[in-house]
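Structure in, sequence out. Go:
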């Protein structure tokens, strides 16, 4: 029975996928004809548009535009090729058509800064259709105006607070030590990407909703994984499709989180708002805003789930890639081990516990993190929509158009970084790089600057410290994939063993 079901699911999946593929191929034939007509009309449009100086570029095929080229580049080791090719043809800011939308792509640091700063609230987020469907209207990632500022300030204030950092430091230490040691007791070869994801998920869920190890955590992890599978998919919604399944998973997640939020609300009502908030749920529950009203519980539940999206995958991927880059660069690894061993020795001698500032004040370790963030480009760009015509550095972005501010292009540009494809933490020792912060935006900027910035850096620092001072490892050959999100092709298999003293 079970096998039959699995088989059936496989068949439906296969069928729907091949149907789509076939559809796409078949569509192309008549489209070739339509294309001619479309081009004629387009040319007229473009001529009209030239007066307003819309950036140059190509719209590619009707409907699919240049999406296939965009995706194909994502599967290579140099995903910026898509940008580079067009940049050399049309200049640093150009026009294209991907994922169902006409888009202006910026590979110019100043233009990106302008877009991020968002003077006069000209820009609102603009994501591919599947993402907007899954996120829902009330997600912080899609909100705009005063509500976004309110939620952003609350969460940012909480995640940046020294109180949270000092208590979460012990939680992170415990999770990292416990998980690594129990892993190593079991097996010698581990898939690092998966293992780190488990650990960081646990920490994130703790920060957001104070759930510890156990059934609830497992359920949450399972459903969350089902949910995010649909973030980048074809936006087609009927039973059997990826998007549909993901939306169902989101419903189950919402139900569970809503239950937790209710429990916490009752607890708060009984106990009052004394002391510090324990987690993000409490932060949102306590806030009364200007209207002296608590945010609706459904809004809070939805936001807690959606807050997991920017936090869940990014931190573990930065750690995994740091391990990968360090493995390929023994000199940098040696320096990192020295610096962290020194701290460990000091701590052992003085018998003091680590404080969070111990971790974040090791300069070489911070340079390793910056260099990893620069090369990893976990968030490779942000997407925005212009609410009115805007002109930036002579480029017109017409009302209603989307802008993709590419971070990867800036981080991998020779104009900004010498030998950009080389992992070189020492480059951060020269002053000047961070001064021109336009050229380094792994966490975005402006009013949407990642509220998890300091928290993430702390978590990564703690992780690296315990990893390099307790273990050594040998990584197997593996490559980075950049589409749809940054991943290791083989999940970075490593053999790991304790350091013998
Ligand atoms: C190394 C890890 C991380 C990276 C590289 C990263 C990067 C980013 C970037 C680039 C943005 C801006 C998106 C935009 O402008 O549209 C952002 C926003 C955000 N991040 Fe992070 N992030 C990381 C970790 C985290 C963590 C751990 C959390 C939560 C605990 C988090 C929560 C958020 C939230 C809530 C936003 C939306 C802010 C808003 O729109 O107002 N991030 N992140
Ligand atoms: C801002 O968000 C609200 C609610 O999501 C939406 O109704 C409104 O149209 C958005 N405003 C703009 C200018 O996009
Ligand atoms: C590393 O990046 C952070 C921002 O993520 C920045 O504040 C810091 O100045 C950078 N370090 C150096 C040495 O430039």
């Amino acid at each position: 029975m079970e096998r039959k079901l699995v088989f059936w699911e496989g068949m439906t999946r296969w069928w729907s996928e091949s149907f789509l593929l076939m559809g796409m191929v078949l569509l192309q034939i008549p489209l070739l004809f339509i294309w001619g007509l479309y081009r004629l009309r387009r040319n007229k449009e473009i001529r009209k548009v030239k007066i307003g100086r819309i950036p140059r570029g190509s719209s590619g095929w009707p409907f699919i535009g240049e999406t296939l080229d965009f995706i194909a580049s994502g599967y290579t080791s140099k995903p910026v090729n898509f940008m580079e090719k067009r940049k050399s043809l049309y200049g640093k800011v150009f026009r294209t058509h991907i994922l169902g939308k006409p888009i202006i792509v910026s590979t110019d640091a100043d233009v990106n800064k302008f877009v991020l700063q968002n003077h006069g609230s000209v820009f609102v987020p603009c994501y591919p259709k599947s993402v907007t469907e899954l996120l829902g209207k009330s997600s912080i990632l899609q909100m705009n105006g005063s509500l976004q500022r309110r939620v952003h300030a609350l969460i940012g204030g909480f995640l940046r607070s020294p109180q949270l950092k000092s208590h979460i430091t012990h939680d992170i230490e415990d999770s990292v030590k416990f998980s690594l040691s129990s892993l190593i007791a079991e097996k010698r070869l581990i898939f690092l990407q998966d293992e780190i994801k488990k650990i960081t998920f646990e920490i994130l869920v703790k920060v957001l909703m104070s759930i510890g190890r156990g059934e609830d955590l497992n359920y949450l992890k399972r459903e969350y994984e089902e949910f995010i599978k649909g973030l980048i998919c074809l936006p087609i919604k009927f039973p059997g499709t990826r998007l549909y399944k993901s939306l169902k998973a989101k419903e189950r997640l919402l139900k569970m989180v809503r239950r937790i939020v209710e429990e916490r609300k009752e607890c708060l009502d009984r106990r009052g708002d004394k002391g510090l908030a324990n987690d993000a749920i409490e932060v949102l529950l306590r806030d009364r805003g200007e209207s002296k009203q608590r945010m609706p519980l459904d809004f809070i539940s939805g936001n807690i789930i959606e807050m997991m999206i920017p936090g869940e995958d990014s931190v573990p991927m930065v750690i995994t890639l740091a391990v990968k880059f360090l493995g390929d660069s023994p000199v940098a690894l040696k320096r990192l081990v020295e610096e962290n061993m020194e701290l460990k020795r000091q701590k052992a001698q003085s018998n003091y516990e680590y404080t969070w500032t111990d971790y974040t004040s090791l300069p070489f370790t911070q340079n390793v993190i910056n260099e990893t963030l620069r090369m990893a480009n976990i968030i490779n760009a942000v997407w925005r929509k212009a609410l009115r015509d805007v002109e930036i550095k002579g480029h017109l972005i017409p009302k209603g158009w989307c802008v993709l501010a590419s971070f990867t292009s800036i981080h991998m540009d020779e104009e900004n970084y010498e030998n950009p494809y080389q992992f070189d933490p020492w480059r951060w020792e020269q002053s000047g790089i961070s001064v021109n912060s336009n050229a380094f935006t792994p966490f975005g900027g402006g009013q949407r600057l990642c509220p998890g910035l300091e928290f993430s850096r702390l978590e990564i620092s703690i992780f690296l410290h315990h990893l390099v001072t307790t273990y050594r490892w040998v990584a197997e050959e593996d490559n980075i994939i950049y589409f749809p999100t940054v991943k290791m092709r083989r999940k970075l298999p490593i053999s790991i063993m304790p350091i013998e003293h």
